[in-house]
């Protein structure tokens, strides 16, 4: 059944630092949609796995963990909160060890399978913008509009540097270039749902664009799709 624009599902994928979360959050606000940060869900599970001292390569153990964990996303004003079993972990999940662990645990198909089911449940009524790595390819192959955001590596590293200043500013831009390159390689090279552009996704290179210009371009595409 064809959805009206109120109920569209918008998929936003791309590598780290491409500007996905900023664009997806602002776009959702502009359209009156809900924003869902799927990366935060992997980060939240990674946080719990680290707390429990689990082996991040032990898929069975992580599968049990994801099965018994309740991950919830809430909007509070302009920000999102992520809760793990009722505990607000938003302040922990942006840290370096959690970030690296999230990239590792997300390679396991069993973990992904549970996450994807959860993400689909959150979108049953439509009216959502979800960002991640596999949203247009796996989570919502029938998404109404798909975007693939990208940017030059040095721009991505500089953005991450700015973002991380609020969290742990221990990493210089050069170190971030290496970290981003390693994370891209893992996210794009993994066997299960690797990051790739969905065939019909519209690519936006955000390197030289302001956030408002990115969302203008996205909105134009969505309206074009809605009218077609
Ligand atoms: O978007 P992010 O940087 O917060 O995501 C953290 C990690 O989670 C990322 O390195 C890969 C994984 N991830 C994923 O595999 N699939 C998604 N849909 C979102 C994130």
TrEMBL record:
It catalyses: dCMP + ATP = dCDP + ADP; CMP + ATP = CDP + ADP. It is an enzyme of class 2 (transferase). One of its GO terms (biological process) is pyrimidine nucleotide metabolic process. The keyword Kinase applies. Its EC number is 2.7.4.25. GO terms for cellular component: cytosol. SUPFAM superfamilies: P-loop containing nucleoside triphosphate hydrolases (SSF52540). InterPro entries: Cytidylate_kin, Cytidylate_kinase_dom, P-loop_NTPase. Residues 10-223 form the Cytidylate kinase domain. CDD domains: CMPK. ATP binds at residues 14-22. Keywords: ATP-binding, Cytoplasm, Kinase, Nucleotide-binding, Transferase. It is found in: Cytoplasm. GO terms for molecular function: ATP binding; CMP kinase activity; dCMP kinase activity. Belongs to the cytidylate kinase family. Type 1 subfamily. This is Cytidylate kinase.
């Amino acid at each position: 059944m064809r959805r009206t624009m109120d109920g569209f599902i918008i998929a936003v994928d791309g590598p780290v630092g491409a500007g996905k979360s900023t664009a997806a959050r602002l776009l959702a606000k502009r359209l009156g949609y809900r924003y869902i940060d799927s990366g935060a869900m992997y980060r939240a599970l990674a946080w719990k796995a680290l707390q429990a001292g689990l082996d991040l390569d032990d898929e069975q153990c992580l599968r049990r963990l994801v099965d018994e964990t309740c991950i919830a996303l809430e909007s509070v004003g302009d920000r999102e909160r992520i809760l793990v079993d009722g505990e607000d972990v938003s302040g922990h999940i942006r840290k370096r060890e959690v970030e690296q662990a999230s990239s590792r645990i997300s390679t396991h198909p069993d973990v992904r399978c549970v996450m994807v089911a959860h993400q689909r449940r959150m979108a049953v009524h439509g009216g959502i913008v979800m960002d991640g790595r596999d949203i247009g390819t796996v989570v919502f192959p029938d998404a109404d509009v798909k975007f693939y955001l990208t940017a030059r590596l040095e721009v991505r590293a500089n953005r991450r540097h700015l973002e991380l200043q609020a969290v742990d500013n221990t990493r210089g831009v050069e170190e971030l270039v290496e970290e981003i390159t390693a994370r891209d390689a893992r996210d794009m090279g993994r066997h299960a749902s690797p990051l790739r552009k969905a065939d019909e996704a519209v690519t936006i290179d955000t390197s030289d664009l302001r956030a408002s210009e990115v969302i203008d371009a996205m909105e134009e595409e969505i309206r074009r799709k809605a009218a077609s």
